[in-house]
Design brief:
Layout lengths: L5 E2 L2 E3 L6 E2 L12 H52 L16 H7 L5 H7 L11 E2 L15 E2 L16
Antiparallel strand pairs: 1-2, 2-3, 4-5
Length: about 160
Amino acid sequence: MGAGRISGRVKTSPHLMKTIRPPRVFSRHGLTLIETTVVLAVLLTLLSVLFMATQSWKRGSDRAACIVSLRNIQVATRSYQNLYGYNPGGHPYTEYGTQDIARHLMEKGYIESALYEIAIGGKSCAGGGTYQRPHADLFPLGGVLYANCTLATTANHVPANASDW
């Protein structure tokens, strides 16, 4: 090794033959309390945003499931009404010992038993509301739903436009 050359981190002098070491640099390992607190605050903020988004998604899916059930009941009611020539606002003939439209729909195969339970109010809405029929034995007028959800006003469990159903 020549004089004055640096070999790695140690510099040697030919005259003194003394080893000169650079000053020792201390490196810290780990995080300080403030850094840890900031990291935890950011993580908690992200988790709260994720939680709120999940709740919003759940409310939206509950609303959609409710509206789909109402739509299926309404379409079955209108199909039955049109096929058998009933007028809007009219009553069906007595069949199966009743004039209940939902019972006629189930007995004739327009709806399954699960949808029948929804139509008669025996099964609650996915959002926690209940289904109601203002008139179980009366075909609704145009643009009026046969069954409604109790969350129609508070959680918007009502279709935007049901006039073509």
